[in-house]
Amino acid sequence: MTLVRPFFSRLSGLISKIKALFVFLVNSRQFFCCYII
Asked: Which domain of life does this protein belong to (predicted)?
């Protein structure tokens, strides 16, 4: 159990970073589409 907890916290942190990056990409894509059109 001692090895699972740090791995899980690291994994959740990585998932939150990926979610933030995905949201940023979607928002920037919408911004560029609105800017081009």
From this structure: Bacteria
